[in-house]
Structures are given as structure tokens and as C-alpha cells.
Design goal:
Elements lengths: L2 E2 L2 E3 L3 E2 L7 H20 L9 E6 L2 E4 L2 H9 L5 E4 L12 E5 L2 H9 L3 E3 L8 H51 L3 H22 L1 H4 L22 H5 L11 H15 L3 E4 L7 E4 L10 E5 L8 H13 L3 E7 L10 E8 L4
Parallel strand pairs: 4-8, 11-12
Antiparallel strand pairs: 1-2, 2-13, 3-13, 4-5, 5-7, 6-7, 9-10, 10-11, 12-13
């Protein structure tokens, strides 16, 4: 046991993080069984369907609710980053898309559960110009059709008003009301003639602005599971840089997920991952994981700062170091626990 003033270094263990006791692992198993039962009761896509991951730069995103449910049942949490349509000017309640950690996306790709969205390739200037012409021709055809429908609706409204006025005139004539009423009747007849003249000139005077045209947005997509060609080509190049730092984080993330823990980002706690014994909706995080390679040097002040921070938020700090980045073997990560004891 190595001691330093104010910091207590736990025993180094191979495979299991220090302090992760049996009760926490059993609670993780219960949560997993609970989630599996819930996922089976809900309507889910076929098991062979791939999760469609879109990219904004190097950031993986999920847009479909079905993909989010499948990720959640697999223990991948992510974070909602979109605004709600009815409450766009707030950031308390967020909606789609679901932003994934790069390690989460890579783990899904390794298990053949997800595939990157295929980006449209450059088809050349000639084909692009032809596609633009077809699109503009479709808009022009849609505009003419919508203008004809709007003109017919306008005529229908004017005819209805004119018929109502004619009916009111007939009622007034039948009752033979006073001279003032007759005068009003003639006034109504003049307004009826004005409506009739307006109806005749409507074909030439009608204006339907281009901005009033409704445009169809084709948002329904079949996805990978419905297209065998795209499914066979799911191993596309991911737009995420694979450096040593990302590989280190991925090894730690994979090892902790295989042990049944749930992980989210720990940026606000100064670490790499927050480690939960079960679903984050039901448990608080117990650990702050820092991922470092075996030969990486850590400044003592940084260790003291993160250990003190972990003590203030009632979490144990874990130093996680994979032995090898090339092979994925369970228990191939070394964990060291840090807890702030006192100044001696």
C-alpha cells in the first residue's frame, strides 16, 4: 500500500476495479434482467436490423426512436442534444438527436449492431445539373397544380357568398317589407353584382405567391435492414480519427461494459467516464474513470485534484490502463482506485 499525504492508493487489481463489490454487480444483473424483460414486451425491429448512425463531422448521432431503444437495451446511453419542436428556446428538456460517445459507436460497430449512414457520392457536374433541372421542373409542376386548386377554392367561396345574398333577396321580396328594407335590398343587389363581376375577372386577377406553395419533404427512410445491398456494405469507413487516445478509451469502455456497468461522459467531473452499477435512470454514478496508457506519466497535482474532486462528489476515482491495445481480452485492463483520506 503506497501512501501520499491526503491520497490513499488502493491495491492494483487485474480485471476488476477496486471497490466494485458483489452487491453492486448483483444489482447490475437485476437491472439488466429488468431491461431485457421490458425490451421484449415492447415492439422492436427485427434482431438483424442495423442501427443507423449518422455523423456530424466526427460526432455520431441517432435520429430514430427505434434505434435509441435498441441502444438503451444494449446498455448504450448517449445524451439527447436536440431541442423540442414546441419548446425550442430552452435547454432543460432536450430531444432528438441522441449524441453517442465515440466509444459507444465503435462498440456498436464491433458487435455488428450498427452501421454508418452512407453519404451520397459526387456524381459529376453533368448528372448534378440534370438532377437540379428535374427538381426545378417538379417544383414548377407542383406550383401550377396548387395554383389551380387555390383558384378553384377561391371561386367556390365567391359562389357561396353570391348564393347566400341571392337567397336573402328572395326572402325580403316575399315578405314585402317597408321601403327602407327595399332600399337595403337594392343595395344588396349591387353588392351581388360586384361579387359576380369579381368572379368573372378572377382568372386574370388571381395571384398565388410562390412562397405559399407547399413543399413535400421526403423524410421516410427504409433503413439498412430493408436493403440487402446496403446491409452487405455496412462496413463503411467511419469518419472518426482512430488515435491512441481513442483506442485507450475504447478498451476501457469495452471492458467495463462487458462487466455489466453503464457509462456516460464525465467531462463535468474532470474524467473520461462516469461508471454506474445499473441504468443511470435508477442509480447514481459510483466511479469516475480516467483512461491512461500504461506508460503515460501523470502529474501529482492532477492526481490530487481529481482525488479531492471525487471525494467532494462522493465518487471513487479509477485510473484505468489497458495492457494491450491490439487485443480485446476481458480482464486486460488494470484498475487503480483513488480515495481522499486526510492530510497527514
Amino acid at each position: 500500500m503506497l501512501r501520499h499525504p491526503g491520497v490513499c492508493f488502493g491495491d492494483v487489481m487485474d480485471g476488476d476495479p477496486a471497490g466494485m463489490n458483489i452487491s453492486q454487480q448483483s444489482s447490475s444483473v437485476e437491472v439488466n434482467e429488468d431491461m431485457e424483460t421490458k425490451s421484449e414486451s415492447e415492439h422492436q425491429p427485427s434482431k438483424n436490423a442495423l442501427i443507423d448512425i449518422s455523423f456530424c463531422g466526427s460526432t455520431p448521432l441517432l435520429w430514430k426512436v427505434s434505434d435509441m431503444k435498441r441502444c438503451r437495451s444494449a446498455g448504450v446511453i448517449g445524451a439527447l442534444v436536440g431541442s423540442l419542436a414546441r419548446q425550442p428556446r430552452q435547454n432543460v428538456r432536450l430531444g432528438r438527436p441522441l449524441e453517442l460517445l465515440q466509444e459507444e459507436a465503435l462498440l456498436l460497430e464491433e458487435t455488428s449492431s450498427a452501421a454508418a449512414s452512407l453519404q451520397p457520392q459526387d456524381c459529376g457536374d453533368e448528372k448534378h445539373s440534370e438532377a437540379v433541372r428535374q427538381y426545378e421542373a417538379g417544383l414548377e409542376s407542383s406550383y401550377k397544380e396548387q395554383r389551380a386548386l387555390a383558384l378553384e377554392d377561391k371561386k367556390t367561396v365567391l359562389r357561396r357568398i353570391m348564393n347566400e345574398k341571392q337567397n336573402s333577396e328572395r326572402v325580403s321580396d316575399l315578405h314585402k317589407q317597408e321601403e327602407t328594407m327595399v332600399f337595403e335590398s337594392h343595395g344588396t343587389d349591387d353588392s351581388g353584382n360586384a361579387i359576380r363581376d369579381r368572379l368573372k375577372a378572377l382568372d386574370q386577377a388571381f395571384r398565388f405567391p410562390w412562397s405559399a406553395m407547399a413543399v413535400q419533404l421526403c423524410t421516410a427512410r427504409a433503413g439498412f435492414s430493408h436493403c440487402p445491398e446496403e446491409r452487405s456494405f455496412h462496413s463503411t469507413d467511419w469518419s472518426m480519427p482512430r488515435d491512441e487516445r481513442l483506442n485507450t478509451r475504447l478498451c476501457v469502455y469495452r471492458d467495463l461494459r462487458n462487466k455489466g456497468f453503464y457509462l456516460t461522459s464525465a467531462g463535468k467531473f474532470g474524467g473520461d467516464f462516469l461508471v454506474y452499477p445499473g441504468d443511470p435512470l435508477r442509480f447514481h454514478a459510483h466511479f469516475i474513470a480516467l483512461c491512461n496508457s500504461m506508460d503515460e506519466e501523470l502529474h501529482l497535482c492532477d492526481i490530487l485534484a481529481i482525488a479531492r474532486l471525487g471525494s467532494n462528489v462522493k465518487k471513487t476515482v479509477l485510473l484505468c490502463s489497458p495492457r494491450s491495445l491490439s487485443e480485446s481480452v476481458e480482464g486486460d485492463v488494470v484498475y487503480s482506485s483513488l480515495q481522499w483520506s486526510s492530510m497527514v
